[in-house]
Amino acid sequence: MRQYAGNRIGLAIVGATLLGLGAYAWLRGQDRLFDLPPNAKVLPAPFHRTLAEEPWPLWMLALALLLLALVALRWLLLALGWGRRGAHNGTGTAMLFVGLKGVEGLGRAGVRVAADGLRVSVTCPSAADVGSVVSKLDQDIVGRIRREVRDDETPSVVRLHVRR
Fold first, then answer.
1. How many structural domains does the chain have?
2. Same structural domain, 129 and 67
3. What is the 8-class DSSP label of residue 4?
4. How many CB atoms within 10 Å of residue 26?
5. To which H or E segment does residue 118 belong?
């Protein structure tokens, strides 16, 4: 299973931005910025006056940053794998790929073993014959995987995603 490069790139961009802002704040607090007097204003004077007269834009900025932090936290937790049920099963995944070897362009497939049963997920292109994929899964493949991983009475959930 391949990792999403977008998660890594996105987290690297967010991390570099936060590192840069933290370094700027630290240098500013230590009076170590080049050619900048210690009492220099960060914001332009008209903008500073507007914020001093009306405090609600700062509250809206704080709310927006809080929501952004919550979205980033959710993204990080999902990227780390929280919220997934069960453990990845390599034997079941291999059996699934062998059973679906006739499907052209099969993107992702995986088998997870959870406390409440078996979870099978398959992603196939829109050009694939979805009926034959479903019949293969229903008649043959899922039964074999259940017998190999646990037993015949194990409940199974199969998710079939068709890409455009």
1. 2
2. no
3. P
4. 10
5. strand 117-124
pLDDT per residue over 72-111, tens digit each?
Answer: 888 788 777 776 777 778 888 888 888 888 777 777 888 8
Interatomic CA distance for residues 93 and 90, integer angstroms: 5
Q: What is the pLDDT of residues 24-45, one digit of tens each?
A: 888 877 877 777 776 777 777 7
d(CA 160, CA 106): 11
Residues 65, 48 share a domain: yes
CB 156 within 8 A of CB 89: no
CATH code for the domain of 105? 3.30.300
> What pTM did the predictor assign?
0.52
Domain of residue 151: give its range. Answer: 87-162
Long-range contacts for 122-128 (Cβ within 8 Å, ≥24 apart)?
122/96, 122/158, 122/159, 122/160, 122/161, 123/161, 123/162, 123/163, 124/160, 124/161, 124/162, 124/163, 125/162, 125/163, 126/162, 126/163, 126/164, 128/103, 128/104, 128/162
